[in-house]
Amino acid sequence: MSRKISIRDKKQWLEMFEAGRTEAQIARVLKRDPRTVARGIEEAIKARRITNIDDDMIRKALFDHQAQLRDILKEVASILVMPPNNLELREEKDGNLADIPISGGRVKTISEDQMILEIEVEKKLEWELLQEHLKQDRIWDYLKQWRSAVPDYVMAEWQFKKAIKKLLENEGLELKQRRTDEETDYFLPALVELFNEVAVKKVLNIPDETNLEAGIVAGEDGFIRHGQGGTELAHCKDAAKCRDKIVAVFTSLPQTPEASEVKCTHGTLAEITKTAKREIDELLLLNLVTGKCRVCRRLGR
Fold first, then answer.
1. Residues 76, 144: contact at Cβ < 8 Å?
2. What is the C-alpha separation between 24 and 16, in angstroms, rounded?
3. pLDDT tens for residues 115-162?
4. Which residue, among 43, 46, 24, 25, has the nearest Cα to 35 in the 3D structure?
5. E strands within the chain?
6. CA separation (Å) from 276 to 106, 165, 242?
7. Is residue 27 within 8 Å of 37, Cβ to Cβ?
8. Rg of the Cα trace of the chain?
9. C or N: which end of the chain has fewer Cβ atoms within 10 Å?
């Protein structure tokens, strides 16, 4: 049975061999069997080759891991955008707001006066690993603020829309889901949607050429429409008088507390969205996600 050669000896022989000495010279200097020296050098070369392969694989694994983490950062950056001003705010049968899809997630109602933001990226394992890497980074505080600001703004828009409905009801109009032949004073959902869309733009100083004061007209058939022959908005026995009441409601909307809340929450959301997005962009510019996670430790980093 061949005698086992120590790692230390094999390393020494390989260094001498690569320095230019022959196997015979090494054997003579160290007073070892030339065949043993030759076998030791061969084993050392094989071991180093395996080590180099392992190192290359680990380097590639770490490189791929970094790419996965940067992809998560890019995904987060892609959802840090302002929601559209014409959010589809739909009431469920229980009176609560239906879930609202937004970029990369949804706003969900959990009670009459509370909403939360759920984002899809949080369901990925890479999200947990990113949190481990950037444990102390300020980005998490910014994202926490953003996640709170989004539902706050949606809730403000929802309360504003409910306020429009209430103001119209205060004028003696009843909400009907569809046109009826009843000779009653009522308004249709289209009126609320129109007022909400145009008034929100007015509150947020978004350019809009819609002139509802001039565009809402009363017809001889009792219907109030948006433009001659346009969308039916309401029906009243005295259409002309009712039309003036409806226009007055629209004119009063920017001065309501609900409108002020829309403006305030929109400003807060815009600021934190900008801040969080800039922070993510800076992290991406590093081309390296600092810190470590459990995957890094498994790879021996």
1. no
2. 11
3. 889 999 999 999 999 999 999 999 999 999 999 999 999 999 999 999
4. 24
5. 100-102, 105-111, 114-119, 174-175, 186-187, 216-218, 223-226, 231-235
6. 19, 35, 47
7. yes
8. 35
9. N
pTM for this entry: 0.79
Distance between CA 41 and CA 26 in Å, rounded?
Answer: 10
For residue 154, which of 199, 190, 108, 198 has the smallest C-alpha distance? Answer: 108
Say which DSSP state 97 is in: B
CA distances from 91 to 97, 98, 167, 187, 189 (A): 5, 6, 18, 17, 11
Interatomic CA distance for residues 235 and 172, integer angstroms = 12
Residue 270's H or E segment, with its range, is: helix 257-285
**Separation of alpha carbons 246 and 56, rounded Å:** 73
pLDDT digits (tens, 9 = 90+) for 234-274: 999 999 999 999 999 999 999 999 999 999 999 999 999 99
Report whether 277 contacts 255 (CB < 8 A). Answer: no
Question: What span, in angstroms and rounded, lies between the C-alpha atoms of 194 and 291?
Answer: 51
Write b or e for each residue in 58-80: b if 16 or more Cβ atoms lie within 10 A of its Cβ, otherwise e: eeebeeebeeebbebbebbbebb
Residues 190 and 233 sit within 8 Å (Cβ to Cβ): yes
Distance CA 6, CA 23 (A): 17
> Where in 165-274 does DSSP place strands (E)?
174-175, 186-187, 216-218, 223-226, 231-235
Task: Tell me the backbone φ, ψ of residue 243, rounded to 5 degrees.
Answer: -60, -40
